[in-house]
């Protein structure tokens, strides 16, 4: 069943279980979605401004080109989800868990992602400009094409992460933990000749 342009603003939908539902252009502004569980659901171009998604669980669901503005995401769990092209602005990420998720083209500009477990995620061409990734676990993540200007990466674990030359030049990696391969790529991206 496809729901298009539905108005769920301020709706109380906490604790519900949704499976294989499809939403396009729906507005969940200010909705209480705490404890919501989704499996195989699709949300395209939906708005979650000021929505409460705390303690929600999402399995194999897609949130594509959605807007999360001042959204509460604390203690939520996302497994095998696609968040392709989704924008996160001033949202609370405390205790969020992302496993095997695709965050390609997502925008986390100025987001506070301190000490989050982001290992093994696909963050291709993601906007992480001025994001605070202090102490974040990014091991094995694909950051190819990601924009990292002004991102704080002190104490971040980037071992096994894929970073292209552009990201290695943009990012301030002081205090980040990297493997030998990334250190060599970093040196080469900065014009050093390695023999």
Automatic annotation (TrEMBL):
InterPro entries: 5peptide_repeat, Pentapeptide-BTB/POZ_domain. This is Pentapeptide repeat-containing protein. It comes from the Bacteria.
